Amino acid sequence: MLRIAITPHEICPAEAAVITAILDAGWDYVHLRHPAASLRDMRNLVEEIPQRHHRRLKLHGHFDLLCDFNLGGVHLNRRCPEIPAYFNGEVSRSCHTIDEVRLYAPSCRYVTLSPIFPSISKQGYIGTLGHDDLIALPAGKVVALGGITPDRIGMIADYPFVGYAVLGYLWADGVTPGNITERLDAFAPTK
Fold first, then answer.
1. Could you tell me which of 53, 45, 101 has the C-alpha nearest to residue 62?
2. pTM: predicted TM-score of the whole model, two decimal places
3. How much is the pLDDT for 173?
4. CB-based burial, 154-180: b 16+ in 10 Å, e otherwise
5. Which of 2, 17, 93, 118 yields a CA-CA distance of 20 to 30 A from 139?
């Protein structure tokens, strides 16, 4: 399964070190979200992350950075719904309904579908998708997002998700380079 971390709204202290730890732990991608950050702040963040990890970073905005860094792709959303004209790399997209999945999944590497469970980072944001909706998802195209915790991975595996994306569980309550490993270890497969 793909394992994706999504950054919170604001850039966190020591975020580059946390992102590096996530990618060093073998997670597939980190999505750099930060809608309120300036282009300079985002550039500084990317520059602080070791270059060996840049191909595993996806942008949710600030697409001009693609001209200066060899990044892993773009993630389209309601705020930034169009692929930049100069970009021909990997594309993923946020979806919130089954109709959006049907529309966008064929042209994307993957789409995220949320919320699957009640969100940790957005209070009151709960899912309305039922068993019949989830069982009919296209195999190999949809990443579960929203309320993802280690104890819910088994439930995700019951559906045709290609992976999961985590925001709230990883970043809540002051994540640091010192405590991120414990949070990541909670997602490690049991032997």
1. 45
2. 0.94
3. 82
4. eebeebebbbbbbbbbbbeeebeeeeb
5. 118
